[in-house]
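Example: Response regulator transcription factor.
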Amino acid sequence: MSVVVADDQRLLRAGFRVILDAEADMTVVGEAGDGRAAVDVVARRRPDVVLMDIRVPELDGLAAAERILEDPENRTAVVMLTTFDASEYVFRALRIGVSGFLLKDTPSDRLLDAVRVAAAGDALIAPSITRRLIGEFTRAARPAGDGVPEQLTALTGRELEVLRLVARGLSNAEIATELILGEATVKTHVARMLGKLGLRDRVQAVVLAYETGLVTRET
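Written out as structure tokens, the predicted fold is:
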């Protein structure tokens, strides 16, 4: 899988390149030191994944990610690299459709996992960022009601269960254990749920679950 690295710190870009190029199934096909350059490199190289620093100059990482993801001919997934003090931007980025968030000091194996997951069309968020996201950004979500939110009425009962567990941050394997189902069956339910709701990935499903009140911080 091909990867572009966008970060204004040359040493960090070099470090990411060493980690990624050491893998047999990955190759870095481009680098960028600012957001505008990142958009240009992605347009030319069409990588599977771009690792994007959320605070690059010229055009910030979120604006660059939005331009990349709004291109209908572009299939590049965006994984944002961030720090705790940038977490106020996470919710906006989830709406844009990024495929993951990682802290810059994340272990290399976690970084590689995120690239593989994003390239496969799924999404991954560092657990610590997920906890902070839920704590800070679900306060404005509508309170849970007694019935199924209108936006989710197309889902079956099982798909609603799966959505609730996805919103809690469970993996397919963990959901399978929770619901006593096969992992392949869970994967099918997730795919159908995303398709019915017109969502890009499970990250956007988490946002919708909180926005609609299906899940709250207390559930």
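The longest strand covers residues 27-32.
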